[in-house]
């Protein structure tokens, strides 16, 4: 007898309350010991060829007709590649893949879309709403692996989409759908079929409560590409990232706009993170963050009020609470007259953007200083830099790319770390001020009363 973890597939001879591999509680289940002893028969094969005789054109990527998806995949999807797409429930995975399937079908490809979570009628209603109807888009509501393999053999599609891998099950394998054994067998069978037929395949994967892909970790190793689809439910912005990619980079991000009539690629998403107001109130500052290789212009807003009770509040949205707390301490220590221990502090980004990298420290700090002093800053300017505990402004990577993005969007002024522009060309008609300390930056930017 053995005990296997339903989350990661870890196996042990005795029961444990907590899995040593994935640290999940109560996930080890008893499995019967296998009594079969299978001997692999040696077969003669001539499948090995000199590498110079291998046709590399068969592995060239072809576009999916969705520009942002092609960006993340590295130019398109490779024939025979298996892509695993994961994301939180309701983020828009099915809508994105239905749009991908419809666009491929509109360009003459036969696409087989297998859904195990919804009925065919429900998918048809969504397709009507997002204008994703095409004659060569085949739809099947099926949860049996054998039936899906039979449809692949009968229809010979050019692309296969399975929504989702956890809903398919094989009648020849023990276990419930979504279990470790079933997910492993279903994935292996679909991958074998995709490689044998050079069939591009996209699998949707559920995620657990801690954000990891449900099923054994072996699933991520079997597939060629692992992508995550992210986004706040109250925001229209969705981001696609590649965690693993055998055919391209993993440092790029695709941006999508989730609207009522479907999902659309965003080639220039910076406009979603800026306020529409033409005024420049106190507590507002712009910065340029990087999502993978893509620079994004983001607006940070701060509000500081007198605390009504004895306990001051700290509320943030889109920014890291620990970094905001550190910036408040730096300001209180280095800016005369700014004491925020007894004040309520609110900091947020516009449009649901998330600032996590240290390059946004300067913008957060200047936004808080502007709100605390009640003075607006210059218009059309960005702050880019990391702030140390002593208040020193430090340089950040890819500064030239960030400044070019700001210049493209009409920004005319920028503040960076001292000597940061030594090997970086200055964009045309852009004034850049180098500051060594946060106190110097605040003195330069805030208007005098």
TrEMBL record:
CDD domains: RadA_SMS_N (cd01121). Residues 58-207 form the RecA family profile domain. PANTHER family: DNA REPAIR PROTEIN RADA (PTHR32472), DNA REPAIR PROTEIN RADA-LIKE PROTEIN (PTHR32472:SF10). Plays a role in repairing double-strand DNA breaks, probably involving stabilizing or processing branched DNA or blocked replication forks. DNA-dependent ATPase involved in processing of recombination intermediates, plays a role in repairing DNA breaks. Stimulates the branch migration of RecA-mediated strand transfer reactions, allowing the 3' invading strand to extend heteroduplex DNA faster. Binds ssDNA in the presence of ADP but not other nucleotides, has ATPase activity that is stimulated by ssDNA and various branched DNA structures, but inhibited by SSB. Does not have RecA's homology-searching function. ATP binds at residues 87-94. It comes from Brevibacterium spongiae. This is DNA repair protein RadA. The keyword Zinc-finger applies. Gene3D superfamilies: 3.30.230.10, P-loop containing nucleotide triphosphate hydrolases. Keywords: ATP-binding, DNA damage, DNA repair, DNA-binding, Hydrolase, Metal-binding, Nucleotide-binding, Stress response, Zinc, Zinc-finger. The middle region has homology to RecA with ATPase motifs including the RadA KNRFG motif, while the C-terminus is homologous to Lon protease. Belongs to the RecA family. RadA subfamily. Residues 344-449 are annotated as: Lon-protease-like. A motif (RadA KNRFG motif) lies at residues 244-248. The keyword Lipoprotein does not apply.
């Amino acid at each position: 007898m053995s005990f296997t973890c339903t989350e990661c597939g870890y196996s042990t001879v005795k029961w444990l309350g907590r899995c040593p591999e994935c640290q999940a509680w109560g996930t080890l289940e008893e499995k019967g010991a296998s009594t079969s002893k299978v001997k692999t028969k040696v077969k003669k094969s001539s499948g090995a060829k000199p590498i110079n005789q291998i046709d590399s054109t068969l592995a060239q990527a072809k576009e999916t007709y969705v520009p942002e998806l092609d960006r993340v995949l590295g130019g398109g999807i490779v024939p025979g590649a298996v892509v695993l797409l994961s994301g939180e429930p309701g983020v828009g995975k099915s809508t994105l893949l239905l749009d991908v399937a419809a666009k491929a079908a509109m360009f003459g490809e036969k696409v087989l879309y297998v859904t195990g979570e919804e009925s065919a009628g429900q998918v048809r209603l969504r397709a009507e709403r997002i204008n994703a109807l095409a004659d060569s888009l085949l739809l099947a509501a099926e949860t049996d692996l054998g039936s899906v393999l039979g449809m692949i053999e009968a229809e010979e599609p050019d692309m296969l989409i399975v929504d989702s891998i956890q809903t398919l099950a094989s009648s020849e394998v023990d276990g419930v759908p979504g279990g470790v054994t079933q997910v492993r067998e279903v994935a292996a069978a679909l991958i074998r079929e995709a490689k044998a037929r050079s069939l591009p395949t996209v699998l949707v994967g559920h995620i657990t409560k801690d954000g990891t892909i449900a099923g054994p970790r072996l699933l991520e190793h079997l597939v060629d590409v692992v992508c995550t689809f992210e986004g706040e439910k109250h925001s229209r912005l969705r981001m696609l990232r590649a965690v693993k990619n055998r055919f391209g980079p993993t440092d790029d991000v695709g941006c999508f706009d989730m609207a009522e009539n479907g999902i659309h690629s965003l080639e220039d998403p910076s406009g979603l993170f800026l306020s529409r107001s033409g005024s420049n109130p106190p507590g507002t500052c712009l910065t340029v963050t990087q999502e993978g290789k893509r620079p994004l212009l983001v607006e940070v807003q701060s509000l500081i009020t007198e605390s009504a009770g004895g306990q001051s509040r700290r509320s943030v949205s889109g920014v890291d609470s620990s970094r905001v707390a550190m910036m408040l301490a730096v300001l209180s220590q280095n800016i005369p007259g700014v004491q925020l221990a007894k004040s309520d502090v609110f900091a947020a980004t516009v449009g649901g953007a998330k600032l996590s990298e240290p390059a946004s420290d300067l913008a957060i700090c200047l936004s808080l200083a502007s709100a605390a002093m009640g003075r607006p800053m210059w218009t059309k300017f960005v702050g880019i830099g990391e702030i140390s505990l002593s208040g020193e402004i430090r340089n950040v990577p890819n500064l030239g790319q960030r400044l070019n993005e700001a210049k493209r969007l009409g920004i005319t002024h920028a503040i960076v770390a001292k000597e940061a522009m030594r090997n970086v060309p200055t964009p045309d008609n852009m004034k850049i001020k180098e500051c060594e300390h946060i106190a110097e930056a605040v003195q330069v930017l805030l208007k005098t009363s």
